[in-house]
């Protein structure tokens, strides 16, 4: 089966700083891949390369069999992306924003309206469908962003911290949506810092540290290698053990 996502020996620098140091990975259709790592490890950079936002990298990147460097427009039609820090045009209403995004994907305006209203209702945002988003909470904005990334029914979905700001009910809903999207054959590649969620919904977990993959497998496989929680495994593999000591030092510094 042709991999949906394929990265070969990816190197990426910002100026003279090398951020990705030889990333290799291959993802099959219908997989939910949790891509995790400490702050600054290179998660968003990897995702941005995959969606064609950062063409200046070394190595080979393919999505749906297409070359990211030369076929990025064709790829963009078939992928969805929900960024970590998105610039929502918040003087628009959700309906106006979703109409705008839908039309970029050349969807029919009537179809967009119907779909947007239905999806907003499922996220309990019906009452706000025509309100300016300037006053929206972080979670409300995140819901609109999630809808905008999925509106054109993409085959591959990239999510950077998809649960950011969501309340407990919305987290459950989004987890379930991710699961059902994968069951219907979509591929999900997401990054998150919420280990419990990663543990529960990922078919495969990839841990990246300082621009290199340090673990790759199902949660059961990773646990088999080291029978700890994902949080402990993460701390060990990424060298962030000893947080208790750091917290003590932090409090000590505050008190002095
Ligand atoms: N546009 C940029 N210019 C210069 N350096 C950048 C740029 N974007 C990211 N970096 C640097 O590249 C490194 C990797 O950043 P990246 O955003 O990919 O990390 P991340 O794993 O997504 O982190 P986080 O968990 O904090 O979101 C960091 O050191 C960051 O400072």
UniProtKB/TrEMBL annotation:
<dbReference type="GO" id="GO:0005524">
    <property type="term" value="F:ATP binding"/>
</dbReference>
<keyword id="KW-0067">ATP-binding</keyword>
<dbReference type="InterPro" id="IPR003593">
    <property type="entry name" value="AAA+_ATPase"/>
</dbReference>
<dbReference type="InterPro" id="IPR017871">
    <property type="entry name" value="ABC_transporter-like_CS"/>
</dbReference>
<keyword id="KW-0547">Nucleotide-binding</keyword>
<feature type="domain" description="ABC transporter">
    <location>
        <begin position="5"/>
        <end position="235"/>
    </location>
</feature>
<protein>
    <submittedName>
        <fullName>ABC transporter related protein</fullName>
    </submittedName>
</protein>
<keyword id="KW-0813">Transport</keyword>
<dbReference type="Pfam" id="PF00005">
    <property type="entry name" value="ABC_tran"/>
</dbReference>
<dbReference type="GO" id="GO:0016887">
    <property type="term" value="F:ATP hydrolysis activity"/>
</dbReference>
<dbReference type="InterPro" id="IPR051782">
    <property type="entry name" value="ABC_Transporter_VariousFunc"/>
</dbReference>
<dbReference type="InterPro" id="IPR003439">
    <property type="entry name" value="ABC_transporter-like_ATP-bd"/>
</dbReference>
<dbReference type="InterPro" id="IPR027417">
    <property type="entry name" value="P-loop_NTPase"/>
</dbReference>
């Amino acid at each position: 089966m042709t991999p949906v996502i394929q990265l070969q020996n990816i190197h990426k620098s910002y100026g003279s700083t090398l951020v990705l140091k030889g990333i290799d990975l291959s993802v099959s259709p219908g997989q939910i891949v949790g891509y995790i790592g400490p702050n600054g490890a290179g998660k968003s950079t990897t995702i941005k390369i995959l969606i064609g936002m950062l063409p200046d990298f070394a190595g080979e990147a393919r999505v749906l069999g297409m070359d990211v460097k030369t076929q990025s427009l064709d790829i963009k039609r078939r992928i969805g992306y929900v960024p970590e820090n998105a610039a929502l045009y918040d003087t628009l209403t959700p309906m106006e924003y979703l109409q705008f995004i839908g039309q970029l994907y050349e969807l029919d305006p009537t179809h967009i309206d119907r779909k947007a209203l239905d999806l907003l209702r499922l996220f309990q945002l019906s009452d706000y469908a025509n309100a300016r988003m300037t006053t929206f909470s972080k979670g409300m904005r995140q819901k609109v962003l999630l809808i905008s990334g999925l509106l054109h029914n993409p085959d591959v979905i990239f999510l950077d911290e998809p649960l950011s700001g969501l309340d407990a009910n919305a987290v459950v809903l989004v987890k379930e949506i991710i699961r059902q999207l994968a069951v219907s054959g979509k591929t999900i590649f997401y990054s998150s810092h919420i280990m419990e969620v990663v543990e529960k919904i990922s078919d495969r977990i990839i841990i990246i540290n300082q621009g290199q993959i340090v673990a790759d497998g199902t949660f059961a496989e990773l646990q088999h290698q080291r029978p700890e929680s994902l949080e402990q495994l993460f701390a060990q593999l990424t060298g962030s053990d000893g947080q208790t000591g750091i917290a003590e030092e932090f409090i000590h510094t505050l008190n002095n």
